[in-house]
# Entry
Amino acid sequence: RECSDYESNTDCILKQMADFLMRSFQNINQSEIPQPIIASKYQRRLHICKIIHQTEIEYVDIMKSIELDYVKPLMQALQSLIPILSIHNIEILFYPLLTILKRQEGLLHWIDGTMKEWCNSNDWVYQHDGICEHYLAAFVDIKFARSYENYHLNYLNMLNTFVYCQQQNPLFRSFLQQCMLKPQSKMMHLHEVYLLPITHFRRVNDLFEWLKLETNPNHWEFNSVQRCITCLKDIDLKINKTHEVSSSERILFHLQESIANCGSLMWPGNQLLLQEDVVALKSPKIDANEPRLYRPIEDLTLFVFNQIFMVCRRITVPVPYTKRLNDKYILLSKVALESVTIKNVEKETENAVWIFCLHDLTYCVKFASKISKYKFMSIMEKSQRESLRLSLID
# Structure
């Protein structure tokens, strides 16, 4: 199309492009348009199972790189004149991972055989064991579950040992840099590898949820998929519970060392619910001529456990050769939760409460904010009800 004298060059070019597109769309037949390929449910299930298989392969490969790139060179260095780490530190850092690797290799061997049968089969229903059956067999195995439980129990000890060796040992720091550059490790630091056993079951659980959506309820493996998802959620709950128990024990052990004359805090079921720093107030004299002012006298810390209540005097102690300060505590009173009564102070004094204990022990304390005060009161009320319920059951 030729442009007239009255049209600008831009308008002419746009009109030519519009004419070209219109002619192109008119010449296209409907038969020439490519139709989307809709995969069958069997193909989608096979694709998901391949993703699960590939996830396990990558997981085991990273674990194998720990054995080949870390453990073997460190063990060979022990026989030389310049060892990098001691045998004790090597066992702490890598033995739980090697135990998991041994169990995962057996599971991967079973899945490899199943995937070969899946890829060679063209039928929707076949008589071979599915991929879920192998996971269920692994979950029933006591050694498989115990390897992950031991790993989570030793996780904090592994991290502390890793940080200490990395800070104090220059040979180990350079060794870690060399290992990270190897392609087998996928440029992952050692502390990043430590997170894989914690997050692995969550990734596999998401894939099995996807597999359940693509499985017909009347399919012979539907119940196995459902049981596998249930087992994965139970393992995740056990992992979280193990982590909570280990964290609680570590906190109680630290408090037992920090509080003077507190006795033992490590009995079964004991758990710290709240630790709050407050200021002790001196109540005013009963005299009409003087203003009623509550004066701060000392720093206190309140400890609320699920069965007992403790009031301690807080003392700041400097750490030798450092600028750090640690808090030490002196026990003032230790009573059961049922014997504690809380009452608000006068309106003139905000964020303060009266705490009445046994043996005529009374404390007037002030919190840092209203949120801290009401949080303390709500936790005390809830824990007192729970403690009273347990005592009635016993």
In short: The chain is about 55% helix and 15% strand.
